[in-house]
Amino acid sequence: MKIKPYIHNESSLAYSVGETLDRFIKKKQDDFTYASGELSQLLRDIALATKIVNRETNRAGLANIGGAFGQTNVQGEEQQKLDVIANIRFTRALTKGGEVCAVVSEEDDEVIDLQNSSGKYVVAIDPLDGSSNIDVNISIGTIFSIYRRVTPIGSPIQLEDIMQPGNKQVAAGYVLYGSSTMLVYTTGCGVNGFTYEQSLGEFFLSHPDMKAPNDGKVFSINEGGYNQFDQGLKNYLKVCKEREYSARYIGSLVADFHRNLLKGGIYIYPSNPKNPNGKLRLLYEANALAFIAEQAGASATDGENRILDIQPTSLHQRTPLFIGSSVMVKEAMSYLAKEKV
């Protein structure tokens, strides 16, 4: 019997589909600070829930799961049906996976204790970001942060397990449900993006080692509140317009952040008299994106402090957010500082 060795070739008849998320996670497991396998499985659990939520968002207009649910969340925002569905899907996947002891979700008033005292991780998540865009078929997303619990394994979950600053994250990521569905994540060793191939049911590495441009010519802010902005911010926006920068604002945090991460730009959600502490949530929105931004070479601040250094004091704590290309963020901060002298 003759044995023929396999010779790899790039035949156009059978092109390579690339590296799957599962294979990439397994290959990169040794990069994790705690390379015991649980974090790898946790990322897979999130990816599975993402696939299910992707299916639900794609069929929302046909399955009567668009529109308002009829309740408001702790933020006072009207919940959409897909908000509730996404929350259930992610919580269920994290419960069955067994690696997580507690979940903090935008859609729940209190910490969700998964009754798994052996779980090593806490997940903070915005299951479906951009609710106002659901019914008009505009990009929405998911944002998640992963923390390693600080209390002993086997003991009940405690407040100190939850109230950790962003610099304690072991992983963070987001999912963009757009023209294609992408999952982008970091474990503190760079940022990588994966695009979902629906016919195969797999995420494939499409954006390896993502790096944000150091500078950009795009600013993303809701200028409807311009009259309430601080003078320093008004001055910065005036300069952006004088330079003929492009104004791009989708209204979905994930979509706006993702575009600027790839193309270069700054996303701004400032404080105002109505929201003196800002509006975006620290634990499950700002921290995750700030971790990703810094790993990609970008910056994130609340206008004065590095986002990742802020010590949370409440579950749904809000914060202003200036995030994006480092040169643009630094310049914006200089204009804010001038008016505070």
From TrEMBL:
Pathway annotation: Carbohydrate biosynthesis; gluconeogenesis
Gene Ontology biological-process annotations: fructose 1,6-bisphosphate metabolic process; fructose 6-phosphate metabolic process; fructose metabolic process; gluconeogenesis; sucrose biosynthetic process
Transmembrane stretches, start-end: none
Keywords linked to the UniProt accession: Carbohydrate metabolism, Cytoplasm, Hydrolase, Magnesium, Metal-binding
Main location: cytoplasm
Similarity comment: family membership: Belongs to the FBPase class 1 family.
Record NCBIfam families: PRK09293.1-1
UniProt name for this protein: Fructose-1,6-bisphosphatase class 1
